[in-house]
Write a structure and sequence with these properties.
The chain is mainly beta. Residues 1-34 have low confidence and may be disordered.
Length: 720
Amino acid sequence: MVSPRPGKRTARRRAGILVIAVLAGLFAQLGGAQAGPVLFSDDFESGNLAAWSTVQTGAAGSATVQSAVVKTGTYAARLSATTAAGSFAYARESLASAQTDLVAAGDFQVQAEGASGGNVPIFRLFDAGGTKLVSLYRQNGAGGIWVWYDNTYNATSANLPLNTWAQLQVHVVATGSATGTVDVSVNGNVVYHSATANVSSAGISAVQIGNNSAAQGFTIVADNILVSNGTTSTSPTNTSPPVISGTAVANQTLTAAPGAWSGTAPITYTYQWQRCDNAGASCADVPGATAATYVLTSSDVGFTMRVAVTGGNTVGSSTATSAATSVVTANAQPPANVVRPSVNGTAQQGQTLTGDPGTWSGTQPITYAYQWRRCDSRGASCVDITGATATTYVPTASDVGHGLRVFVTASNIGGSATLGSLPTAAVTASDPVIAAVGDTACDPHDPYFNGGLGSSTYCHQKYTSDLLVNGDYNAVLPLGDMQYDCSPASAFAASYDPTWGRVKSISRPAPGNHEYKSTNPDLYGYNLCKPNAQDYYGYFGTSAGDPTKGYYSYDLGSWHVIVLNTTRGCSVISCAAGSAQEQWLKADLAAHPAACTLAYWHEPRFSSKTPSTKSDAFWKDLYAAGADVVLNAHVHNYERFAPQDPLAGADPARGIREFVVGTGGRSHESSGTTVAANSEARNSTVFGILKLTLHASSYDWQFVPQAGQSYVDAGSGVCH
């Protein structure tokens, strides 16, 4: 609705006489542009909002003048809206003519803010058509002051806490190209400056306080609003102090840079060099030293130097001084080490080490060069590492077992010196990173094989294997059914080997149903199947364990890893309690009481689609031994479970986390109609691998989809 404003123009004329008198000093207080002709002002001492062209509110929004919270005088405006639909509140002043150089200033206090991610407008500036050109606002939550223009969001260096008064000013020069100006000042300090702002040359025709966007909760109090033409020049103000470069030694030349300045261009600079005591105090002008450069003399030895720079323009001038140099010496002193260089960081493959140059005496400036060296485990017999000349170094596999040192060469005009750090501990190998998946390669006779390229939903073994090549994995865990239909040698050669065979050297497989399938003819009518997974063991060799068992174990980093055989529902190799395999599992767990244990086999105990109780005994043994992770496949989808006990009871303290990863590429199947207990994530449409990083007492997981597909599941767990 529109607030009633009886006698608006009369009230505005009365208010104008008082307001301009009260607000005349505001711009000087803010430290911004000198006030040009006043276009509009309101200190709200009229007790109403009659001075404004438009005052609008909607729904639960309100725009009032009150006396409970004011900056000066008796009254201040209060604008408020809620998150209810249609709630808004603002006051807008239409200017007599469009302004291409405008300054808007006032006192503001934000009393309430909306949801994080939103903001509370301070000033909004519009063109004649009502298009927003500039918005000065406070960001909800963090409280930062931001300015928006040309569809860009720009942070200032200021923050405004809730219920705190601040004087805010925005100065806009609109040129219609990237030559305009946007300046923001808070409490007299310039907190944002751009001389490349692109603001429409149509100019600013209206100034608003409050928010014309609905359902944005806020409460703001405004006082002492003053809008003026900003064409009046501003005097120079230093925004970054002058800087001296050069060496503090007699007969050397020092050079002054004026620093950064704001103010109306052009700004000219004059220089005065000063001689100070050895602490940089008690400075006095050096007669005649008024150039941008200064040659040090014997009179300067034992003193420090600084330069005072005066920036001037047609409005006025101000002076800023540099920091003092080091004490001027008669001769350059070469670098001498005071505190030895050191190495910070963890000496582990893949971790970043940082060289600290230590502390050096000598004539400033001193520069530092670095050379990392690989040493024996005692820190001796060191050799340069080619190309390792940065302050940081990331150890590689070549560094494992070696100590590392960084040698620092310090140089100045007096000479140079080199000293090495003490050696690091012997570099350890990185935490192992593994990839796991099953149900992988189509039979070459499959109608969807397509020369190994597959279709949109079948035979993606090439694309999943592409994730592994050059992937820097320590091991690959094929989870069974690697090669369809019955894993004959000819199929391995034509389908699996050109794809997943590229990582065969680091593969430690678990057998699946199709490796042990022996009934001829196969699914495609060929008599290629052989008993006892002959071609599976023939292809993988000793990496697949004893061909009469198919179960084995190994260590990977600090983890103990166990491979079990559940093929064809445990009908080939028994999984039952008391079986040879189960007794071996108990003995292996007892012999390897590792802090972290991972086990994998083909058929999952838990699944929302096809669970199997055949591995109950395995789960009970692993749970009793404190195992951490179980990996399975068989079901052609991805599913992750929360830690649980063998009876599917949630157990965040001692439970085992199971992953079903049947997404190797052959095909997909649904996740089932009923979600199993403790199932936390499921996907049945994306092919990909499970990536696990095995830390000393924890692990990270990430499902990695094939290129062009998207699914995210990642997290971390701790070992028992």
